[in-house]
Write a structure and sequence with these properties.
Elements (H helix, E strand, L loop, with lengths): L2 H12 L4 E4 L6 E4 L2 H12 L11 H11 L2 H13 L2 E4 L1 H10 L4 E5 L4 H10 L6 E5 L12 H9 L7 E5 L2 H10 L2 E4 L4
Parallel strand pairs: 1-4, 1-6, 4-5, 6-7
Antiparallel strand pairs: 2-3
Length: 189
Amino acid sequence: MDMESFNKRMKQLIGAARNIVWDFDGTLADLHIDWFALKKEVCERLFPTEKFSDPLSLGQIEEKVRALRLRTKYIHILRTYESGATYTLLAQSIHFIKSYGKEYRMAIVSDNLKSTILSILEREQLDTFFVETVAKDDIMYSKPHPEGLINLQKKWSDSKDHWVFIGNSWKDKEAALSFGVRFIDITTV
């Protein structure tokens, strides 16, 4: 789909919403991170007495991190991987934001670290489009839990009827729906 057709379709899907919440990785940019190596390192360093045939999922890892109160160490390992990551901007999303972003109040709710998100937004001169960023290091429960959206709601007084969450995964969709806002799957636009 060409950029103008994409923009037109996005405007239709967004409808009367005034507040757009974006996911980051896979929606605005693709981070090039070796997730398998990250999960393996987390398991080896934080759970050294346990043997896993395959590294746990990030959701399982985060449950164990919370239970064992290893959040600071976990975030440190994540920061090592994310800070060294390269990325590719997702052209259609970025074109839409540059074309129409000032018409909306926009935020990011992401499972990535705030330093990663802000660094990329600043480098790409996109930071002025977003009034809030709620990242993994701001919350205890990652998506699909709606905690990031709940934190954002505390700052925004608009009715959820005026919100839309744009993401690319089942976790984004589940977070949006359990919070009670509309969801746009960027991969199907």
